Amino acid sequence: MSGPETNPITEESRPGLGADLIIPALAAAFTIYYLVSTSGLVWEARATGTLIGVCLLVLTFLQILKVVVQARSGRATLGFGSLFERSTVQSQRLAILLILIVFVAVIPWLGTTLGLFLVMMASMWVLGVREWRTLIGIAFAVAATVYILFIALLDSRLPTGLVERLLSSLLG
């Protein structure tokens, strides 16, 4: 009579958790950049960002620790799994990443409102939305909401372009 069979974890069955470290690493890098770049400001200007940044760094550390513990115990690998496989989803992710890079690069010239409108339309198109009413309606709603809340009401110093200048001259 033999005991219960144990199923050893094989290399193929262990999940690759290396991809799970990409966003935490980027978040940590951005947080450190923020903390360093705002170090010369008065404490009131940095207080909230510093609090959130420290919390984000702690959560990032915990995520990295979790992945390392799983890898060291043999339950996972530090591989990237299917992250770099060619698929429709991966192509969409890459296209959205490129759209966002272009958005960041051109927002000083386009302005926040027009830039958001265009990036929303392009992203939804990449994700398969083809109904023009939906594309224009959602993109307009997002851009208008950001304009009203952050530019008109809060007077945030977001990049201004043709739309912001036109609306400020029309609205006074």
Summed up:
The chain is built from six helices and no strands. It has 172 residues and is mainly α.
Give a verbal description of the structure.
This protein has 172 residues and is an all-alpha fold. 67% of the residues lie in helices and 0% in strands. The chain contains six helices and no strands. It has helices at 22-37, 43-72, 88-110, 112-126, 132-153, 162-171. Helix 1 runs antiparallel to helix 2 (43-72), helix 3 (88-110) packs antiparallel against helix 4 and helix 4 (112-126) packs antiparallel against helix 5 (132-153). The protein is flat and about 65 Å long. It starts with 21 loop residues before the first helix and ends with a helix.
Query: Which runs of at least 5 residues are low in confidence (pLDDT < 50)?
Result: none
How much of the polypeptide forms β-strand, as a percent range? under 5%
Largest sheet: none
Approximate shape: flat
Question: Structural class, please?
Answer: mainly alpha
What is the share of helical residues? 55-70%
How many β strands by DSSP? 0
> How large is the radius of gyration?
23 Å
Give me the number of helical elements: 6
* Order of helix and strand elements from N to C terminus: HHHHHH
Separation, N- and C-terminal Cα atoms:
88 Å
Q: What's the overall average pLDDT, rounded? A: 86
Topology:
Blueprint: H1 22-37, H2 43-72, H3 88-110, H4 112-126, H5 132-153, H6 162-171
Helix pairs in contact: 1-2, 3-4, 4-5
Features:
172 residues, mainly alpha
